Amino acid sequence: MADPKGFLTTGREVAKTRPVEERVKDWNEVYVPGSLLPIISKQAGRCMDCGIPFCHNGCPLGNLIPEWNDYAYREDWAAASERLHATNNFPEFTGRLCPAPCEAACVLGINQPAVTIKNVEVSIIDKAWDSGDVTPQPPERLSGKTVAVIGSGPAGLAAAQQLTRAGHTVVVYERADRIGGLLRYGIPEFKMEKVHINRRIEQMRAEGTKFRTEVEIGRDMPADALRRRYDAVVVAAGSTVSRDLPVPGRELNGIHFAMEYLPLANKVQEGDFVAPPITAEGKHVVVIGGGDTGADCVGTAHRQGAASVTQLEIMPRPGDERNANQPWPTFPMLYKVTSAHEEGGERVYSVSTTHFEGDEDGNVQALHLVEVSFEDGKLVQKPGTERRIPAQLVTLAMGFTGIDRSNGLVEQFGLGLDERGNVARDADFATNVDGVFVAGDAGRGQSLIVWAIAEGRSAARGVDRYLTGASALPAPIRPTDRALTV
After folding, report:
1. How far apart are CA 113 and CA 103, in angstroms?
2. Which of 28, 60, 204, 429 has the least C-beta neighbours within 10 A?
3. Rounded-to-integer distance, Cα 67 and Cα 166, Å
4. Phi and psi of 398, rounded to 5°?
5. DSSP notation for 155-182
6. Alpha helix (H) residue ranges in 287-377
7. CA dihedral (416, 420, 423, 425) positive or negative
8. Could you tell me if 473 and 160 are in contact, meaning their C-beta atoms sit under 8 angstroms apart?
9. H or E element, residue 207
10. What pTM does this model have?
11. pLDDT one digit per residue (tens) for the chain, 486 residues
């Protein structure tokens, strides 16, 4: 145990954010650079080294949290990095983007603020990169087997890295012009600067992984050609079909899916555009959807100079404390104020959009909504609560409904689907098609980044065993595993 009295003598302290008036003028990460290292060792010392560390259960990766907390407390950063990478290929991604179910399951969190596990994680990996402790790990020998990975999000990258290190020749196919999937174009720069993706890609290249961009399997290359070329295929194409809002006026100009809006802002940061083709500058912006993607739209609109930003959520406002029906160590639904919400805008709960209103040129100019409640599991509108709000840009951030089938990938492979429309798989993450496996949101449905990486690692074991008859690769989860709930 690092500090036997740490949880008694040290209070929770988290990363400091830059002043709002400063950070909305740029696209850099919102946190003060270097602000964690002076405090993080003491924060790691709050870990109680529990006999049964429920943080392990909260994280699908099975991160060895008490171990790297102990090393961080002692400032043995190299050992901490080794323990961190033992279960997680990309801790700099999860340390920035994961909502930290491990902290919700922290034993200290029963009656005190939980250990700042996420901040400790990102401090360790950033220190490791700065110290040169993150190096390529090429295989000692090659197996002679080849694997294609479709999709370069966190699941695809994790599977590719694991299989490359196991000695297989791996090629990652990505339909976008850059590697990273939603990490690249779905996550704004202010949440994770893309340098973190770029240096991981370079590490993977040095290990032997190959990458092919602007190749969409099913459209640019037929599935049968891919199967003939490779000994195994991993489908890690994500759950990329956005949930639509079929109400009157949906066809008006200025109404876009979040994943039409956010990538363009990222492309400006990549140098592809001087200004984004879809911009919030000077406009009244309405974001429909109260989740993390909606918050990303809010923060992006602030930086583009929106006249106003309103975020709508159909569900009631969550509470500030755990509900009795969401006991520890489950992940509770709490009212969350992200960095984007700190920057301004209005959040409106328990409302539903009835229709959009346009001008004479076919552009959206207003949104009509009504207050709603749930009675016996049914959505009920409250009479007399209708109102109109100005809206010159509307982003739909209501989640995703499944794998993209428009490119023919599912049909060309002949993949079976489950009752939710995800690609079905067995205990080894294998599909109904011999040699074809599935990992990430394509098989699980929309989920968290930690689940995506865990899926990629687990699917890699299934592929390795298929190719060689046995595997020493770890498999942190089963396809049927789900987050701890009641």
Report:
1. 9
2. 28
3. 26
4. -110, 20
5. HHHHHHHHHHHTT-EEEEEESSSSTTTH
6. 292-303, 339-342
7. negative
8. no
9. helix 195-207
10. 0.97
11. 678 999 999 999 999 999 999 999 999 999 999 999 999 999 999 999 998 999 998 999 999 999 999 999 999 999 999 999 999 999 999 999 999 999 999 999 999 999 999 999 999 999 999 999 999 999 999 999 999 999 999 999 999 999 999 999 999 999 999 999 999 999 999 999 999 999 999 999 999 999 999 999 999 999 999 999 999 999 999 999 999 999 999 999 999 999 999 999 999 999 999 999 999 999 999 999 999 999 999 999 999 999 999 999 999 999 999 989 899 999 999 999 999 999 999 999 999 999 999 999 999 999 999 999 999 889 999 999 999 999 999 999 999 999 999 999 999 999 999 999 999 999 999 999 999 999 999 999 999 999 999 999 999 999 999 999 999 999 999 999 998 776
In 3D, which of 168, 189, 159 has the Cα closest to residue 89? Answer: 159
Q: Cα–Cα distance between 285 and 278 in angstroms, integer?
A: 12
SS3 of 135, please?
coil
Q: Do residues 407 and 218 make contact, with C-beta atoms less than 8 angstroms apart?
A: yes
Q: Is the dihedral of CA 394, 98, 127, 476 positive or negative?
A: negative
* Token representation of residue 208: 């032997």
- Whole-number Å distance between alpha carbons of 122 and 135: 17
Write the CA distances from 107 to 13, 54, 102, 327, integer angstroms. Answer: 17, 7, 10, 12
Residue 470 token pair: 């046995």
**Quick one: which of 39, 32, 293 has its CA closest to 187?**
293
In whole angstroms, give the CA distance from residue 68 to residue 82: 9
Identify the helix (H) or strand (E) that includes residue 124: helix 117-131
Residues 6+ apart with CB under 8 A from 22: none
Token pair for 486? 């009641």
Instruction: Let me know: does 395 contact 403? Beta carbons within 8 Å.
Output: no
Reading the block at residue 468, the tokens are 């060689």
Both structure tokens of 342 = 């700190």
End-to-end CA distance of the chain: 31
User: 295: which residues sit within 8 A by CB, 6+ positions away?
Assistant: 311, 338, 340, 341
Strand order in the sheet with 169-174: 210-213, 169-174, 146-150, 232-235, 436-438
Residues constituting the chain: 486
CA distances from 227 to 167, 224, 233, 415, 427 (A): 19, 5, 7, 13, 22
